[in-house]
Amino acid sequence: NIAMTLNNLGLAYQTQNAYPRSLDALREALQRYRQLAERNPEVFLPDVAEGLLNMAVTFQTMGSYDPCIASYSEAFTLYQKLAQKNPEAYIQFLQASLAGLNAIWGALNRLDLSIPFHEKNVQTYRKLNAEAPMIYGPYLAYALLNIAVIYQDQNNFEKCQAANEEAITMYRGLASHDPTTTLPLLSATLN
């Protein structure tokens, strides 16, 4: 598969700090994966998302924030869709996309721009939590804590308090089923 080879080549250039060559290879790989995904999205959409994440990391390393944000944003959107179908496989990449966006917006002192992504993240975990609360409850609580920090940073104390209180309620409920794992998280949240 030439797209996979190009992607691997782009990553190899990235490790050698040859960023323009890395981006050339990653762009071509992404273009090929997009074409393949048009015909067979079930198979190749994850590759499109991965290609976007790889490009975002390269742009971030280069300090090219606008294309970095665009790549992370599109990757986040794709991973959100993929995680709803197969959370075990894609949750970690959804989180990586959001963490990348937060790093960029934090560096630009514009965390307010991350709020819609955090809200979508909370929505995703709410849906997953409805299906499997013991698995996704901790993820939802953590997502609520993250958005609470952003709300606090933006002086939106009402939303901050609501998100924190919901996270605490969730951790308390989870602690009644799994105190060993959840009580330390509850304690840290209450501090």
Task: Write up what this structure looks like.
With 191 residues, this protein is mainly alpha-helical. Helix content is 89%, strand content 0%. Helix 1 runs antiparallel to helix 2, helix 4 runs antiparallel to helix 5 (87-107) and helix 7 runs antiparallel to helix 8 (157-177). The longest helix has 22 residues, at 41-62. It is globular and about 50 Å long. The protein starts with a helix and ends with a helix.
Present the secondary structure layout.
Layout: H1 2-15, H2 19-39, H3 41-62, H4 65-85, H5 87-107, H6 115-131, H7 133-153, H8 157-177, H9 179-190
Helix pairs in contact: 1-2, 2-3, 3-4, 3-5, 4-5, 4-6, 6-7, 7-8, 8-9
Task: Give a brief outline of the structure.
By secondary structure, the protein is mainly α.
Percentage of residues in strands: under 5%
The DSSP helix count reads 9
Distance between the termini: 51 Å
Mean pLDDT: 90
* Biggest sheet layout: none
Poorly predicted regions: none
Q: What is the strand tally?
A: 0
What's the shape? globular
**What is the structural class?**
mainly alpha
What percentage of residues falls in helices of 4 or more residues?
over 70%
Task: Determine Rg (CA atoms, Å).
Answer: 18 Å
- What's the helix-strand series? HHHHHHHHH
Index terms:
mainly alpha
